[in-house]
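Cross-posted from the bioinformatics board.
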Amino acid sequence: MSDPRLERMARTIVGYSLALKPGDLLRIEAAALAQPLILAAAAEAIRAGAHVITRISLDGIGETFLRHASDEQLAYVAESEKVETETVTARLAIGGGWNNRSLSGISPDRLALQRKARAALAERMMQRRLKGELRWCITQYPTNASAQDAEMSLVEYEDFVFSACFADRPDPIAEWRNLSAMQAGLVERLGRVRRLRIEARDTELELSVEGRRWVNSDGKANFPSGEVFSAPVENSVNGRIRFEFPAVYSGRMVTGITLEFRDGRVSSARAESGEDFLKAMIATDAGAAALGEVAFGTNAGIQRFTRNILFDEKIGGTMHFALGNAYPECGGANKSAIHWDLIKDLRTEGRVFADGELIYEHGRFKDERSRGRVA
Amino acid sequence: MTDPRLQAMAKVIVNYCLELKAGTEMRIDAPYLAEPLIREIYREALLAGAYPSTFIGISGLGPIRYRYASEEQLKHVSKLEEFSVENLSAVVTLWADWNTREMTNVDSKKMAMFRAARKELNTRFLERIAKRELRWCGTLFPTHASAQDAEMGLEEYENFVFGAMLLDKPDPIAEWRRVSGEQQRMVDFLNQVKRIEMKTKDTDLRFSCAGRKWINCDGKENFPDGEVFTGPIEDSVEGTIRFSFPAVYGGKEVEDVRLRFEKGRCVEAHAAKGEEYLNAMLDSDEGARYVGEIAFGTNYGIQRFTKHTLFDEKIGGTMHLAVGASLSESGGVNKSSLHWDMVCDFREAGEVRADGRLILKDGKLLL
C-alpha cells in the first residue's frame, strides 16, 4: 500500500482537477521515478471510465538526446505525436525527476531549436484547451532532487507537497472547492478594478488592468494552485519593484532583482547575482521587456520558497509578475518566447491599492469575505 | 558490463590508495546507491587476497535520527563502533548521495551533540591512520544529487569525476605516482618554511608552520587528490579570511563565511547564510575554533567549482583551511570532533608568501 496522501492526491487530480469522464483519453507524462503517483492516477482514471496512455521518461534520456542528436534529429517531430496532440482529451504532466540540473550543460541554442520545432504542438494544445476539447493538469511528485532544491529531506518535502495539495486532509476536493469559491469572490472584485498600485520596501509600481479578465486558478490546470491572475495593459506599467525571492529560469538562479518600468517596458534591470542572465532574458525579444502577467498567490498551505515555480508563485501573501508572454484567457496581448514569473513577498510589509482604495495589506485582502487565504 | 572507468577506479582504490595486501580485513562503507562501484571494489579486494566486508547505508536515516532520538540516544556510542575503529585495517568510504541537502533542517545543536559524543572515536580513527595501522580512503561515486549541485547532467558529471581521478588515462596508477613526485618537491620546500602569509580579497591571514610537516596528498586518503597540507602552530593563526565558495558540512550549506582569528582562536564568525549553524559547529568543543589544517590545492585538472569538498579543496590555485581536528601526521595537536574544510579561491588577485618569498600569485605556483 502506498502513502494514503498519494492516493488522495490522485483522486483529487482525477475527480476534481481533470474531472475525467467515461470515454476520456488521458495521457500521463512523467519520469519513471514517479511510478507510485503514475499508478495511483492511472487506477483512479480507469475507475472513472477513462482510457489511459502513459509517456514515461527514463533516467538520463533527455540529456542523452540533447547531447548527441543532430540538428535534424532535434527538430524532428514524429507523426504519432501530432496524432496524440489531436486525440487526447486530458493530460497529466507530473514533474519530479532524478536531477533538476541535468540540462545545465546543454547549449541554449540546442534547447531553442527543439522548443521551436515543438512550438506548433504546444500551440495546438493551447487552442484545443481554449475550445474545451482538452484539459490538462501540471503537478509534482516529491523526489529527492526537488527536496534537495528546497533544502529539505525527502520526508519533509513530501509533507510540504501533500499539505500544499491539501492531500493531508480527509476531503481535499471539498477544500479545493472552498478555495475556488473564495477566489471567485476575488476575481469578481478585481474584475471591477482599473488601476493597481503596489507599495512596499523599494517598491512603487502602478499598472492598469482595465478591461482585462482575472482568472481563478483553483487547482485544475496547476495542482496545487491558489492564485488569481490577469494581464496588465501592456503600456501601463510604471515605477519600480524589488523581488525578495530568487528567480529561477531554466535552472539558472538570479537573486535580488530590482526592475524599473516606463510606459510598460523595463527601463532598468539590476540583480545582486545573475544580472547578465537577467538582462539577456529581457533582451530575448520585444515582448520579454514587458509584463504578461500580474497575480496574487493565495495558498496559505505554502509558506516556504522551494525553487519550484509551481509552488513558489502560489505562496499565500505574495504577488507575482511575469516578464513575457501573456495568457490569452486574460485578454493580454503581449507575446514572447519567455514567461518568467518573479515573486514579490508582501507578507511582512507592503500594501496594494485598487483605484486608490487600500485592498491588501500584510499579505491579506482587507475584506474578510475574500481575505485571500484559505485554511 | 559496468562502465570500464568504474573497474579502473576499483583497481586504483585497491592497489594504489589502500595498497591492500593478502590477509587484510577491509570494509567498504557506502550507501546502496553506489552498488556498481561496491561490486567492483569487492571483486578487486578479493583478487588482492584481502577479506572484504560491506557496511551499506540507506537514505533518510539521518533525518530520522535527529527527529526522534533522545539526548541519551544521540550520545550513545556503541561498543561495535569502538571495536571497528580499533580493529579495522582498511576502510574505503564511498560518498554517494540521493539528496545532498537532507540534513538542512536538522537541529544544529543535536548534530553537534552527536558529533561531540564521537570525539574520542574520531581522534582514535585519525591516530590509527597517522600511524599507518589503518588505511583509509574517502572517494565519491557520481550520483544525480551531486551532479545537480554541480549543475551538470549525470553523464557530464561522470566525465568530470572520472577525469579528475585520471581514470580516462591508460595507466591511472602511473599518473598518480607522477603527481606524487611533483608534489613531493613542493613539500620538501615548504618543510623549510617558518611563516606563511595569505592575501586575497577580504583575506589577510598569517600563521607559523615552523617545525610542522607538510604532507603530500597524492590520492591515498582522498581520491582524487592533489593537495599539500600542514597543521599550523595552533596559537599562531592571526587575521581574517573570507571563503569564496559555499562551505558544506554534515549536509548543511553555509555561504560566504568570514572568520577572524586572534592567537589561533576564531573570535568572530559570520556567514550570509547559515551563520547560526556555523557558530553551533564552532562551539562543538574547544578545539573547534582552532585551525587544524591549512592546505594548497594543486590539482590543475579540476577547474570547476562543484559544491563538493572532495573536489573543490583540490582545485589548483585555491587554498583551504579546516577548523577543528588536526591530522597528527603533520605534527598538529588540535583535538576536536569537528574537521570542516573551507575553500578560498586565490585564482584572481591572490598572493601567498613563505618567509617573505612570493610562492603563489593569482593561482599560479611559483615554486
